[in-house]
Description:
- By secondary structure, the chain is an alpha/beta fold.
- The chain folds into two domains: 5-170, Rossmann fold, CATH 3.40.50; 189-294, GMP Synthetase, Chain A, domain 3.
- Helix content is 36%, strand content 23%.
- The strands form two sheets. It has a six-stranded mixed β-sheet with strand order 2-3-1-4-5-6, sandwiched between helices.
- The termini are far apart.
- The model is unreliable at 33-42 and 63-67 (pLDDT under 50).
Amino acid sequence: MTDTRCGFVALIGEPNAGKSTLLNRMVGAKVSIVTHKVQTTRARIRGVALQDQAQLVFVDTPGLFSPRRRLDRAMVSAAWSGAADADIVVLMVEAHRGITEGVQTILDALQDRVGHQTLVLAINKIDRVKRETLLKLSEELNAQRDFAATFMISAEKGHGVPALKTWLAEHLPNGPWLYPADQIADLPLRMIAAEITREKLTLRLHQELPYQLTVETEQWDEHRNGSVRIQQIIYVTRAGHRGIALGPKGETIKQVSIAAREELEKFLDRRVHLFLEVKVRENWQEEVERYEEMGLEFKDGDT
């Protein structure tokens, strides 16, 4: 019998570095929200991928940035916690942006935040720069930290991803698998459904509004014919935001509902009846329950 391997791989980096895109490609299905807007990943989403006899449990952490609000601080705390709990930490850096102030802050923090874990560098979006620029960036980053390996990838197009996945699988500790072979995420379906709807809202709405809203799956009813009825509530912090989410004559929420339903049907491989409601909840970002729903820690004393 062949020995199996299993372990946790944390993906860290600045917001919008491509962590969610890489996670989804590794897993082979969308388990994490992907948008061009930063700071969209809130919960530490665990995607599960198989490579030969290894099971890779990916932790897609929120992007690391300078926190201002309680929710920001909870997201950054979750990111570093995910890195501390992992067997391998993959730092993702955007090739065309290089060593930004944010990347430098992460590099400096790695010394104290990451101990026994294997550290790997993944330079993403390599199609945006010339080879000479890539090599120079790799040299500069490796001069600062002791990376066990460096990979040049395009998470969006898949370039270099198989080699990275194979390397990770080969360097995980020996041990039994933690999840069934057909499981791709440890998030409940209700939360994945809420994340899919939040992604569609984020893509469609004004730049500032998405960070002031959250989506919760209130009801999930399985029907005898195999279809599912999903009822979700979109919480916003102001009455004016409710109008933006609904749109003129309800057109915005209608289009969001159609897009979310279509993706849910692909993900679940069955008919979905999706019902969305927008409610004003001014202090949802200060409620313990909302943080628990997102898998984040609510710290007393934060504001």
